[in-house]
Design a protein that fits this description.
alpha/beta, 4-stranded antiparallel β-sheet, about 25% strand, ATP-binding cassette domain-containing protein, nucleotide-binding, ATP-binding
Length: about 270
């Protein structure tokens, strides 16, 4: 078994500037080190999985990349330009959308309203500008078009309240919302957790659809078969550091677990 170091694992087949790049990120919480000089590169049209044991720094890394946390040291670049996120809205405004495990959907609202949650479209003219009347017809038309583009066939009726959907369908709504507005990067945090086999496969198909559209995806998951099914590269976190970056072609699941647990040194 050949294990590459983080430096050697830098992608050699990728061309151009990374869509998202983090360099030597450090984040501490008092005496607890969340990130210890972590670097990461994400290129257009790829799925980059982030794996690691609990406490390895996965969540902290993603929070720094999406504005939920501010790193103490290090830099973040988007399309080669330095960015400084102070809040999640800053990242969203630049095209980085995140789907958390909790989904953050509103059960009482329908599918279309959830897709445009926080970005509601209003009627043209005085109705929208003064009376702030929502253009529900237009939102439903655009929601249906987005679901069709993503190949989501299980959500034919965008007027159905989300509370009436299955877990997989709710996840599809959240992913579709991220895809609709995530012009640069889509981050998925444990998207198949608590889903059955069929619904998990639907979510994995969504991920491959996003990749085919050229949208880079960061996938955080504990499910190794899913990671190896859809990821182009795998960033392994261990004890707050990047232990290695591997690919499903160069390493097996056993190799990845060995690096992740420290049984093998990356």
């Amino acid at each position: 078994m050949t294990i590459t170091t983080p430096t050697e694992a830098e992608p050699t087949t990728q061309n151009g500037t990374p869509v998202l790049k983090a360099t030597k990120l450090v984040k501490t919480y008092g005496h607890v080190v969340g990130l210890d000089g972590v670097s990461l590169e994400l290129y257009a049209g790829e799925v980059l999985a982030i794996i690691g044991d609990n406490g390895a720094g996965k969540s902290t890394l993603v929070k720094c990349l999406t504005g939920a946390e501010i790193p103490d040291e290090g830099t973040i670049e988007l399309d080669g330009h330095p960015v400084h996120f102070r809040r999640p809205q800053d990242a969203r405004e630049l095209g980085i959308e995140t789907v958390y495990q909790s989904l953050a959907v509103s059960p009482a609202l329908d599918v279309a309203a959830n897709l445009f949650l926080g970005r509601e479209l209003r009627k043209p003219g005085i109705l929208g500008s003064v009376f702030r009347v929502l253009d529900r017809k237009l939102m439903r038309e655009r929601a249906a078009a987005e679901l069709s583009t993503l190949g989501i066939s299980t959500l034919q009726d965008v007027t159905v309240p989300v509370e009436n959907l299955s877990g997989g369908q709710r996840q599809a709504v959240a992913v579709a919302r991220a895809a609709a507005f995530g012009s640069k990067v889509v981050v998925l945090d444990e998207p198949t957790a608590a889903l059955g086999v069929r619904e998990s496969n639907q979510v994995l198909e969504l991920i491959t659809t996003l990749r085919s559209r050229g949208v880079p995806v960061i996938l955080i998951s504990h499910n190794m078969p899913h990671v190896f099914q859809v990821a182009d590269r795998i960033h392994i976190q261990r004890l707050g550091k990047r232990a290695a970056t591997i690919t499903p072609k160069s390493h097996s699941m056993t190799d990845a677990v060995a690096i992740m647990t420290g049984a093998s040194v990356g």
